[in-house]
Amino acid sequence: MTVYTDDEVRPEAGARDLRAFGEAMDALKREVEAEVGEEDLRRVRRLDLFSHGCGAMGRLLLHVSLDPLTFGAGVFALWIHKQLQATEIGHTVLHGAYDRIPGVPDRYRSKQFHWKIPIDEDAWRRGHNGRHHGATNVAGRDPDIHFGTVRLTPETPHRFIHRIQLPFTLLVLFPNFGWMMNMHFTGMLDAFGINGERLDFLPDRSAASRRLALRQALRKYVPYYLTEYLLFPALAGPMFAKVLLGNWLSEKLRDVYSAATIFCGHVGEHVASYPEGTRARSRGEWYAMQIEATNNYEVGPLVSMLCGGLDRQIEHHLFPRLSPQRLRQIAPRVRELCEAHGVRYHSDTWPRVLRDALRFIGKLAARDGVRRATRQVIAEAA
Predict the structure, then answer these.
(1) Among 296, 324, 294, 307, residue whose Cα is nearest residue 254
(2) Which residues, in sequence order, are CB contacts of 116 under 8 Å at separation 6+?
(3) Is 381 exposed, middle or buried (0-12, 13-18, 19+ CB in 10 A)?
(4) Closest CA to 59 of 75, 72, 48
(5) What is the pLDDT at residue 355?
(6) Rg for the chain (alpha carbons), in Å?
(7) CB 87 within 8 A of CB 119
(8) If we measure between CA atoms, which residue out of 342, 255, 331 comes closest to residue 299?
(9) Is pLDDT at 3 greater than 60 in this prediction?
(10) Helix axes 207-226 and 177-185, enclosed angle (nearest 10)
């Protein structure tokens, strides 16, 4: 990971003529936003219909399956439904991608949308849209540079608990990603001191703040898990346990897959982090900071759809209100602009980016692991 100090970022930004870069990116944004319209709305409607068809088929197969093959097909179909609702549809809608289209129904408006995952919509919009996207990987401003007991950049102070963060990430965080995300954004991790001394979402750890966080978390946990783990299994009568297992497996698939997409976009050796107090001094510098604090990874169009377009994480951080197909459309032009203006644009295969992210999390488990690795690279280069 590149760790930029305030003195290092500014001169480099000036040398790269980021004013021209910012103007070019603004022009690209205006151009693509002018194309957003009824076509985008028709696409999300078709995808939503397909998703619910997969969900209905998956639940039916889980109820009637008498063999492992049919049961596995039910789990897979239900996972496709949940994955599309979490990312390509839900994540996109909550960013407001369709809000400006005339006549858009409430189900595709960011403030009316009901997300079919156990994460509170209001908490997520405040923490993700409002804070993470505005200051990606900036210490003291981006609440996502740590995730409870997982340290994701060198800017997060090291604690003893971080020594086990790689097995925790793989064995606990990834398989329970939806649950943990809700804990994070509602302030539950703050309330119980899991983030250490830092408070990301709560004003304090008073009893009133803890009750507020708990109410917000339970607002999604209770109806969601009662539906998945009690209502649908109960409808299967004597097949309760089988349906419960199928629902649980589909949840795990969605959580692990979603965690892998998100961590790959924000963590690794090629991702820049910034010390507390760092602020962009121009539009072009803000664009450059967003690009260098994120990763892309290369996958096919169907896999990209299941990633919600987050394989184009760089473009998503530049233009978070664009739908995934628009991000895929402009990615080659963004890369060309970066190359023309000297802004580092990193992309690789998904397995390599994931391996790099996990390896970096392992390095951050040691207090000085990343600094030692950085000094070694510098020494070898010299």
Answers:
(1) 307
(2) 82, 85, 86, 90
(3) exposed
(4) 75
(5) 96
(6) 21
(7) no
(8) 331
(9) no
(10) 150
Strand partners, 3: 273
Region 6-29 average pLDDT: 72
For the chain, first and last CA: distance in Å?
18
Q: Could you tell me if 85 and 51 are in contact, meaning their C-beta atoms sit under 8 angstroms apart?
A: yes
Claim: this prediction has a pTM higher than 0.70 = yes
Task: Please give the helix or strand (H or E) that residue 273 lies within, else none.
Answer: strand 272-273
AA identity, residue 68: P
CA distance 314 to 331: 8
Tokens, residue 197: 């001394």
**Which residues 6+ apart lie within 8 Å of 368 measured at CB?**
none
Residues 6+ apart with CB under 8 A from 239: 63, 233
Residue given tokens 């194309």 in the structure block = 35
> Given this model, what pLDDT does residue 2 score?
54
Residue 103 structure tokens? 């006549």
Beta-carbon count within 10 A of 193 CB: 11
Please write the tens of the pLDDT for every residue from 267-299: 999 999 999 999 999 999 999 999 999 999 999
| Spatial contact of 121 and 130, defined as CB atoms under 8 Å apart | no
Locus of tokens 């299941």: 306
Q: DSSP letters along 7-26, please?
A: HHHHHHHHHTTHHHHHHHHH
